[in-house]
Write a structure and sequence with these properties.
The chain is α+β, with helices and mostly antiparallel strands. The protein has helices spanning 3-11, 14-35, 39-54, 60-67, 79-87, 100-107, 146-152, 156-161, 178-184, 186-193, 197-207, 251-264, 266-274, 278-289, 314-318, 334-354, and strands at residues 91-95, 119-126, 131-140, 168-176, 213-217, 236-240, 304-309.
């Protein structure tokens, strides 16, 4: 028994001591299995787990009714009809209702982790038809992102001592409904609308902090061929994450372990919960408590990091000077963003149509539900 474990034993409950080796083995078993998966396999494993933990076949009708609210082309074989649908779009950005999370789980290949801290969710809706085009979520940004901090010119005093971290956020969800995303560059429109005036004004009204810029990450990294965040004047590519994110444990195991460490070390866990990125920090504490080497529990999947400052002076403001000047980098209205996007969408649709590459098959993840 290690010295660290001996020290824990002295002030630990019977439950903790008696189950320690069992749960340590369970953690190692799960992380070893995850470590052998590709990024796509890992994400699908977590998605299957999510859909079957949160839903059963009794929910299928209700989820299917939600998918009927998704915008789609009437007939992909009719070019003129499809182009007419695109030209008649009139997007609006509106706050979430109770079904936002369900829609997010249905259409995104990434599991939804929610989390603590600041957060606002929005629908992008076609106003004439009231059909959903996509989803946006804005959340508190991570405390430490080296390439972002280097780009801004931040130190810890500016970022935390003067609370400048409150003036930025991360676009944690930017996702179109499938038909719109696959065939009409819908992902780019949703991404650009994450910086629109509706989102920014809603954030300021709720939190009383001026939003100066937003960051985001790509789901599958960044290649030379680019991503939805490249080839525009909204986002700047900063680099990659280091892939040092801990595997999320299966829900039942995580719930059990978080309960145990909360009872054994309440003061430490309480500090974790009120800090930034609490879920990862709690996972880190669980792995340390059960003496699991962090290097064996991280997935190594690197993601592109992108930064969208709203003003020419944003980086100055975030360093607490030049505060009298606010020069917008572009027009942030929903209508203006849409009008700049529309010609690119039409060109993309025509190209796919001419090359017979329009996608008629796409994933809705309610199809993964098998539990009764």
């Amino acid at each position: 028994m290690s010295e660290k474990k001996k020290k824990m034993d002295e002030g630990s409950t019977f439950e903790f001591n008696e189950t320690y080796d069992f749960f340590r083995g369970q953690i190692i078993k799960e992380t070893r299995a995850y470590k052998q998966m590709s990024q796509e396999e890992f994400m699908m494993e977590k998605k299957i787990e999510e859909m079957n933990n949160d839903y059963s076949q009794l929910d299928l009708i209700a989820l299917e009714n939600l998918t009927n609210q998704f915008w789609k082309f009437d007939n992909l074989f009719d070019r003129e009809r499809c182009l007419d649908q695109l030209n008649k779009l009139s997007p609006i950005v509106i706050p979430e209702n109770k079904n936002w999370v369900h829609c997010r789980k249905i259409i995104s290949s990434a599991e939804y982790t929610g989390g603590l801290g600041r957060s606002m969710r929005f629908y992008v809706v076609d106003e004439p038809t009231q059909l959903i085009l996509g989803l946006i979520e804005v959340k508190s940004d991570f405390k430490n992102v080296k390439v972002r901090d280097d780009e801004i010119g931040w130190d810890d005093e500016l970022k935390n001592g003067r609370n400048k971290l409150n003036n930025i956020a991360i676009l944690s969800t930017l996702i179109p409904v499938p038909d719109f995303g696959m065939n009409a560059l819908g992902a780019k429109l949703i991404a650009f609308l994450g910086s629109c005036d509706v989102v920014r004004n809603s954030w300021k009204n709720k939190y009383n902090d001026e939003l100066e810029g937003v960051s985001t990450t790509s789901l599958y990294g960044h290649s030379n061929s680019g991503s939805i965040y490249t080839g525009n004047n909204y986002f700047k590519t900063l680099g990659h994450t280091n892939g040092d994110v801990l595997f999320g444990l299966p829900k039942e195991l995580y719930t059990t372990l978080s309960g145990i460490v909360s009872r054994e070390f309440p003061d430490i866990v309480e500090k974790i919960k009120v800090g930034t990125n609490p879920k990862q920090r709690l996972l880190d504490f669980i792995f340390k408590t059960y003496q699991v080497d962090r290097s064996t529990a991280t997935h190594g999947f690197k993601r592109g990091i992108y930064w969208c400052p709203f003003y020419l002076e944003t980086n100055d403001h975030l360093k607490d000077f030049n505060l009298e000047k606010y020069t917008p980098r572009f027009n942030y209205s929903v209508g203006e963003i849409f009008q700049k996007w529309l010609p690119k969408s039409i060109n993309r649709f025509n190209k796919l149509f001419d090359e017979n590459r329009l996608s008629q098959e796409y994933k809705l993840y309610n199809n993964l539900i098998y539990g009764i």
